[in-house]
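testing teh design pipeline on a random one, pls ignore if ur not involved
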Protein backbone atom coordinates (compact mmCIF):
# COMPACT_ATOMS: atom_id res chain seq x y z
CA UNK A 1 0.00 0.00 0.00
CA UNK A 2 1.50 3.29 -1.11
CA UNK A 3 0.74 6.14 1.29
CA UNK A 4 1.92 8.74 -1.21
CA UNK A 5 -0.43 7.36 -3.86
CA UNK A 6 -3.30 7.58 -1.36
CA UNK A 7 -2.28 11.19 -0.61
CA UNK A 8 -2.59 11.95 -4.32
CA UNK A 9 -6.10 10.46 -4.37
CA UNK A 10 -7.06 12.64 -1.38
CA UNK A 11 -5.56 15.74 -3.01
CA UNK A 12 -7.44 15.09 -6.25
CA UNK A 13 -10.73 15.12 -4.32
CA UNK A 14 -9.88 18.30 -2.42
CA UNK A 15 -8.85 20.01 -5.66
CA UNK A 16 -12.55 20.02 -6.61
CA UNK A 17 -13.23 22.14 -3.51
CA UNK A 18 -15.67 21.29 -0.68
CA UNK A 19 -17.93 18.45 -1.89
CA UNK A 20 -21.17 19.60 -0.31
CA UNK A 21 -24.57 18.17 -1.35
CA UNK A 22 -25.98 19.49 -4.66
CA UNK A 23 -22.67 21.21 -5.53
CA UNK A 24 -20.78 21.03 -8.82
CA UNK A 25 -17.68 19.99 -6.83
CA UNK A 26 -19.48 16.92 -5.47
CA UNK A 27 -20.65 15.89 -8.94
CA UNK A 28 -17.14 16.28 -10.39
CA UNK A 29 -15.66 14.34 -7.49
CA UNK A 30 -18.20 11.54 -7.94
CA UNK A 31 -17.35 11.38 -11.65
CA UNK A 32 -13.64 11.22 -10.74
CA UNK A 33 -14.19 8.35 -8.27
CA UNK A 34 -16.26 6.39 -10.80
CA UNK A 35 -13.59 6.93 -13.46
CA UNK A 36 -10.76 5.76 -11.19
CA UNK A 37 -12.57 2.59 -10.10
CA UNK A 38 -13.38 1.72 -13.71
CA UNK A 39 -9.78 2.37 -14.78
CA UNK A 40 -8.67 -0.05 -12.05
CA UNK A 41 -10.86 -2.78 -13.50
CA UNK A 42 -13.74 -2.80 -11.04
CA UNK A 43 -17.42 -3.06 -11.95
CA UNK A 44 -19.12 0.19 -10.95
CA UNK A 45 -22.78 0.77 -10.21
CA UNK A 46 -24.39 3.93 -8.91
CA UNK A 47 -27.38 4.40 -6.64
CA UNK A 48 -29.14 7.68 -7.26
CA UNK A 49 -31.97 9.00 -5.13
CA UNK A 50 -33.16 12.17 -3.42
CA UNK A 51 -32.96 12.50 0.35
CA UNK A 52 -34.41 15.17 2.62
CA UNK A 53 -32.06 17.19 4.83
CA UNK A 54 -32.88 18.30 8.39
CA UNK A 55 -33.86 21.69 6.93
CA UNK A 56 -36.30 20.16 4.44
CA UNK A 57 -33.89 20.70 1.55
CA UNK A 58 -34.00 18.07 -1.20
CA UNK A 59 -30.52 16.67 -1.70
CA UNK A 60 -29.40 14.68 -4.70
CA UNK A 61 -27.73 11.53 -3.38
CA UNK A 62 -25.33 9.33 -5.35
CA UNK A 63 -23.77 6.28 -3.73
CA UNK A 64 -20.94 4.71 -5.74
CA UNK A 65 -20.34 0.94 -5.55
CA UNK A 66 -17.23 -0.66 -7.08
CA UNK A 67 -17.17 -4.48 -7.14
CA UNK A 68 -14.14 -6.74 -7.44
CA UNK A 69 -15.28 -10.14 -8.79
CA UNK A 70 -19.00 -9.26 -8.60
CA UNK A 71 -19.93 -12.86 -9.43
CA UNK A 72 -18.55 -14.24 -6.17
CA UNK A 73 -21.07 -15.05 -3.46
CA UNK A 74 -18.66 -14.67 -0.52
CA UNK A 75 -17.97 -10.95 -0.19
CA UNK A 76 -16.82 -8.22 2.17
CA UNK A 77 -17.72 -4.54 1.98
CA UNK A 78 -15.43 -1.59 2.75
CA UNK A 79 -16.99 1.88 2.79
CA UNK A 80 -16.29 5.59 3.28
CA UNK A 81 -18.15 8.84 2.58
CA UNK A 82 -17.08 11.33 -0.08
CA UNK A 83 -19.22 14.36 0.73
CA UNK A 84 -18.09 17.37 2.79
CA UNK A 85 -19.83 18.99 5.74
CA UNK A 86 -21.44 22.25 4.56
CA UNK A 87 -20.74 24.00 7.89
CA UNK A 88 -17.49 24.38 9.86
CA UNK A 89 -19.48 24.82 13.07
CA UNK A 90 -16.65 23.58 15.33
CA UNK A 91 -14.31 26.30 14.09
CA UNK A 92 -12.82 28.52 16.81
CA UNK A 93 -13.76 31.51 14.65
CA UNK A 94 -17.56 31.76 14.77
CA UNK A 95 -17.59 33.82 11.57
CA UNK A 96 -16.52 30.60 9.76
CA UNK A 97 -19.36 28.44 11.07
CA UNK A 98 -21.32 28.67 7.81
CA UNK A 99 -18.23 27.97 5.68
CA UNK A 100 -18.07 24.53 4.00
CA UNK A 101 -15.40 22.11 5.24
CA UNK A 102 -12.69 20.98 2.81
CA UNK A 103 -12.91 17.51 4.40
CA UNK A 104 -9.42 16.23 3.58
CA UNK A 105 -9.56 13.87 6.58
CA UNK A 106 -13.32 13.71 7.20
CA UNK A 107 -14.20 12.42 3.76
CA UNK A 108 -11.35 12.37 1.25
CA UNK A 109 -9.00 10.19 3.33
CA UNK A 110 -11.37 7.22 3.48
CA UNK A 111 -12.08 7.32 -0.24
CA UNK A 112 -8.34 7.69 -0.93
CA UNK A 113 -7.70 4.45 0.98
CA UNK A 114 -10.47 2.69 -0.98
CA UNK A 115 -8.96 3.80 -4.29
CA UNK A 116 -5.46 2.69 -3.29
CA UNK A 117 -6.83 -0.66 -2.03
CA UNK A 118 -8.60 -1.02 -5.39
CA UNK A 119 -5.27 -0.48 -7.15
CA UNK A 120 -3.89 -3.60 -5.41
CA UNK A 121 -6.84 -5.99 -5.67
CA UNK A 122 -5.90 -7.64 -8.98
CA UNK A 123 -2.39 -8.41 -7.71
CA UNK A 124 -3.50 -9.36 -4.20
CA UNK A 125 -6.26 -11.52 -5.70
CA UNK A 126 -8.16 -12.32 -2.48
CA UNK A 127 -10.35 -15.41 -2.61
CA UNK A 128 -13.50 -13.39 -1.92
CA UNK A 129 -15.43 -10.67 -3.70
CA UNK A 130 -14.86 -7.12 -2.43
CA UNK A 131 -17.33 -4.23 -2.63
CA UNK A 132 -15.93 -0.72 -2.18
CA UNK A 133 -18.74 1.74 -1.41
CA UNK A 134 -18.53 5.55 -1.37
CA UNK A 135 -21.49 7.04 0.47
CA UNK A 136 -23.00 10.43 -0.26
CA UNK A 137 -24.86 12.75 2.15
CA UNK A 138 -23.14 11.51 5.32
CA UNK A 139 -22.31 14.90 6.76
CA UNK A 140 -25.47 17.00 6.30
CA UNK A 141 -26.49 16.39 9.93
CA UNK A 142 -28.21 19.20 11.84
CA UNK A 143 -25.84 21.93 13.17
CA UNK A 144 -26.32 23.74 16.49
CA UNK A 145 -28.54 26.42 14.94
CA UNK A 146 -31.07 23.86 13.69
CA UNK A 147 -34.53 23.77 15.34
CA UNK A 148 -34.38 22.17 18.76
CA UNK A 149 -36.27 19.05 17.67
CA UNK A 150 -33.62 18.44 14.95
CA UNK A 151 -30.49 19.52 16.78
CA UNK A 152 -29.85 16.22 18.56
CA UNK A 153 -31.47 14.00 15.94
CA UNK A 154 -28.54 11.89 14.80
CA UNK A 155 -30.64 10.34 12.01
CA UNK A 156 -30.09 13.63 10.12
CA UNK A 157 -26.56 12.30 9.44
CA UNK A 158 -25.70 9.31 7.24
CA UNK A 159 -28.53 9.81 4.74
CA UNK A 160 -26.74 8.04 1.88
CA UNK A 161 -25.84 4.98 3.94
CA UNK A 162 -29.38 4.78 5.33
CA UNK A 163 -30.67 4.54 1.76
CA UNK A 164 -27.95 2.04 0.75
CA UNK A 165 -28.68 -0.11 3.80
CA UNK A 166 -32.40 -0.28 2.98
CA UNK A 167 -31.56 -1.39 -0.56
CA UNK A 168 -29.08 -3.96 0.76
CA UNK A 169 -31.71 -5.41 3.10
CA UNK A 170 -34.34 -5.51 0.33
CA UNK A 171 -31.92 -7.29 -2.01
CA UNK A 172 -30.79 -9.71 0.72
CA UNK A 173 -27.19 -8.57 0.26
CA UNK A 174 -25.21 -10.60 2.79
CA UNK A 175 -21.46 -9.99 2.82
CA UNK A 176 -19.40 -11.63 5.57
CA UNK A 177 -18.72 -8.28 7.22
CA UNK A 178 -18.23 -4.58 6.63
CA UNK A 179 -15.51 -2.06 7.49
CA UNK A 180 -16.18 1.69 7.45
CA UNK A 181 -13.35 4.21 7.15
CA UNK A 182 -13.79 7.76 8.46
CA UNK A 183 -11.00 10.23 9.25
CA UNK A 184 -8.25 7.74 8.48
CA UNK A 185 -5.57 10.09 7.18
CA UNK A 186 -4.81 12.73 9.79
CA UNK A 187 -1.32 13.14 11.23
CA UNK A 188 -1.28 11.49 14.64
CA UNK A 189 -4.73 9.90 14.20
CA UNK A 190 -5.24 6.73 16.21
CA UNK A 191 -8.07 4.21 16.05
CA UNK A 192 -9.78 2.56 19.01
CA UNK A 193 -12.55 -0.01 19.43
CA UNK A 194 -15.70 2.00 18.66
CA UNK A 195 -18.71 1.08 20.78
CA UNK A 196 -21.28 0.06 18.16
CA UNK A 197 -18.55 -1.85 16.32
CA UNK A 198 -17.95 -3.94 19.45
CA UNK A 199 -21.68 -4.40 19.99
CA UNK A 200 -22.41 -5.68 16.49
CA UNK A 201 -19.08 -6.92 15.08
CA UNK A 202 -16.52 -7.47 17.83
CA UNK A 203 -14.83 -10.38 16.02
CA UNK A 204 -14.27 -8.20 12.94
CA UNK A 205 -12.61 -5.49 15.04
CA UNK A 206 -10.36 -8.04 16.73
CA UNK A 207 -9.32 -9.45 13.34
CA UNK A 208 -8.53 -6.03 11.86
CA UNK A 209 -6.51 -4.95 14.90
CA UNK A 210 -4.68 -8.28 14.61
CA UNK A 211 -4.01 -7.65 10.92
CA UNK A 212 -2.70 -4.18 11.82
CA UNK A 213 -0.11 -5.80 14.05
CA UNK A 214 1.08 -7.99 11.15
CA UNK A 215 1.12 -4.89 8.93
CA UNK A 216 3.37 -2.99 11.35
CA UNK A 217 0.57 -0.54 12.19
CA UNK A 218 -0.04 -1.43 15.83
CA UNK A 219 0.86 2.08 17.03
CA UNK A 220 -2.14 3.42 15.01
CA UNK A 221 -4.63 0.72 16.09
CA UNK A 222 -4.91 1.03 19.86
CA UNK A 223 -6.59 -1.84 21.72
CA UNK A 224 -8.68 0.43 23.91
CA UNK A 225 -12.33 1.52 24.08
CA UNK A 226 -13.18 4.48 21.86
CA UNK A 227 -16.74 5.48 22.70
CA UNK A 228 -19.99 5.18 20.70
CA UNK A 229 -20.11 7.16 17.44
CA UNK A 230 -23.01 7.69 15.04
CA UNK A 231 -21.58 6.99 11.61
CA UNK A 232 -22.38 5.13 8.39
CA UNK A 233 -21.70 1.77 10.05
CA UNK A 234 -24.79 2.19 12.23
CA UNK A 235 -27.38 1.78 9.43
CA UNK A 236 -25.15 -0.92 7.91
CA UNK A 237 -25.56 -2.85 11.17
CA UNK A 238 -29.11 -1.97 12.19
CA UNK A 239 -30.86 -1.71 8.79
CA UNK A 240 -28.79 -3.94 6.49
CA UNK A 241 -27.86 -6.44 9.21
CA UNK A 242 -24.20 -6.50 8.10
CA UNK A 243 -21.74 -6.84 11.02
CA UNK A 244 -19.71 -3.68 10.41
CA UNK A 245 -16.97 -1.85 12.31
CA UNK A 246 -15.95 1.80 12.17
CA UNK A 247 -12.28 2.71 11.82
CA UNK A 248 -12.42 6.31 13.02
CA UNK A 249 -10.06 8.71 14.77
CA UNK A 250 -11.61 9.31 18.18
CA UNK A 251 -10.13 9.43 21.65
CA UNK A 252 -12.59 9.37 24.59
CA UNK A 253 -10.27 11.75 26.48
CA UNK A 254 -9.69 14.27 23.68
CA UNK A 255 -12.60 13.65 21.27
CA UNK A 256 -12.24 13.95 17.50
CA UNK A 257 -9.10 15.45 15.91
CA UNK A 258 -8.79 19.23 16.34
CA UNK A 259 -9.53 19.85 12.64
CA UNK A 260 -12.87 17.98 12.75
CA UNK A 261 -15.75 20.08 11.32
CA UNK A 262 -13.49 23.14 10.99
CA UNK A 263 -11.96 25.09 8.11
CA UNK A 264 -8.63 23.47 9.08
CA UNK A 265 -9.56 20.00 7.77
CA UNK A 266 -7.16 20.47 4.87
CA UNK A 267 -4.47 18.46 3.07
CA UNK A 268 -1.67 19.79 5.29
CA UNK A 269 -3.09 17.74 8.18
CA UNK A 270 -2.87 14.48 6.23
CA UNK A 271 0.01 12.05 6.64
CA UNK A 272 0.88 9.24 4.20
CA UNK A 273 2.00 7.12 7.17
CA UNK A 274 -1.55 7.14 8.63
CA UNK A 275 -3.11 6.30 5.27
CA UNK A 276 -0.61 3.48 4.79
CA UNK A 277 -1.27 2.06 8.27
CA UNK A 278 -4.98 1.75 7.53
CA UNK A 279 -4.61 0.58 3.94
CA UNK A 280 -1.93 -2.02 4.61
CA UNK A 281 -3.99 -3.42 7.50
CA UNK A 282 -6.97 -3.81 5.15
CA UNK A 283 -4.84 -5.56 2.51
CA UNK A 284 -3.51 -7.88 5.21
CA UNK A 285 -7.03 -8.72 6.37
CA UNK A 286 -8.29 -9.30 2.81
CA UNK A 287 -5.37 -11.62 2.09
CA UNK A 288 -6.38 -13.77 5.08
CA UNK A 289 -10.00 -14.29 3.95
CA UNK A 290 -10.49 -17.82 2.61
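output:
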Amino acid sequence: FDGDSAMNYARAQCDFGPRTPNSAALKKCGDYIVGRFKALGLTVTEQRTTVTGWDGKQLGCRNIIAAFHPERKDRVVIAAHYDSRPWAEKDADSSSHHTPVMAADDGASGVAVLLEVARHLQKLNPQIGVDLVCFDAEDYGAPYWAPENKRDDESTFCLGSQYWSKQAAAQNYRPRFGILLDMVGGRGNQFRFEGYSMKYAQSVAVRLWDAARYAGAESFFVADNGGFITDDHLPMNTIAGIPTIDVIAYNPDGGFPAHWHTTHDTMDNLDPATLRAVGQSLLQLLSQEK
